[in-house]
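Hey, quick one: can you model this chain's 3D structure?
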Amino acid sequence: MQHRHAKGGTLVLGGGFAGGYVARLLGKAGATIVSRENFMLYTPIVPEAASGTLEPRHVVVPLRMMCPHADLVLGNATSLDEERRQVVVETEAGELELEYRNLVVALGAIARALPIPGLAERALGFKDLADAIALRNHVLRQLEAADAAVDPQVAKRHLTFVFVGAGYAGVEALAELSDLVRDAMRYYPRLREVERRWVLVDAAPKILPEIPARLGDYAAGELAKRGVDIKVGTTLAGVDQLAATLSDGERIETDTLVWTAGVKATPAVRRFGLPVDEKGRVTVDPTLKVEGRDSVWSLGDCARVPNAATPGQFDPPTCQHALRQARRLAKNIRGEPKPYRYRMLGQVATLGRHKGIADVLGLRFRGFLGWFITRTYHLYQLPLVRRKLRVVTDWTVGLFFRRDIAELSMLGHAGPLGDE
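Sure thing. Here's the predicted structure for all 420 residues.
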């Protein structure tokens, strides 16, 4: 087994929003990142990659460019020896033993699935870039299937899209993809008379429960204007090959069910023997140090993070909070540890083309101004000037040219040589 010391003495498990920013903010102090991918996914703009507004590469940031003073090891951490302060990582070149002085666990979250009949077999997720591109390809394939169908009822089924989960991910993904389908209709003259149906389902009494009620009501109104059927206080009872059944007994014939109903801490954290709560999140103290540990820290979606600015409450799994946690943790590693404290400045969300909502310092914006503020905020937070410029270029092109409707199903799936 190969052996190596973590650069700067800090080993970061996870190259997502939380882990990537810790390594970046440590600066010249250095760190070693262990990640399955060589990029950080900027999740707030993933829905725009799904709809074709942004080129997929532009929603990811290469970790070696984002964290120029850090080492990167592609692989999976398989075991932790706290006594020897070593982590074993499985890489393509074999097992690697990494020795650390400070260990940062930032392994993120996975989609939270429920034991609903047919969900695992039939639903599409929307957690990462691969999910986004797969969903885009699926939606475009449904247009082709509807165009080829002879029976109008079959065509209608192909043009019915059900989204379960009305948080940020569900609402933004539905809004962007409905824009994609609406724009694509000009190329499918046979489908112009076929009814298209978009259904948004959530168990909560309102959509976007995280934001002020007035903005949530505005978002619901905008979606309703586009013909989105919003079903709140409703859950998914089951899904089969031809339809989704809701808790109110309605059976919706569809070939597309998208599951965006929350996330949970990645189960991988359990293999390290760290303390976790009933939800599987690593428990940390106010300084972000793992409870009962001297040299292990945790943050992001895989951790239960107390916030001194909101006593008695734990941070939600959002990029905004992960970034602020990373800032505090980087300072704690370099100096005297202090409690993490962050009060949200606001919340933003897009609702498709030129529509959005924003709550900034208590001021509430909606419509075009809300959309502009949301995009400006995401652009500000996106690392690297070159990435910002690429995203701005995509957005600018999108103002003057129609949306691309090419599917990307062949990318990364080369066939065998000589395949006919």
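One thing worth noting: The chain is about 30% helix and 25% strand.
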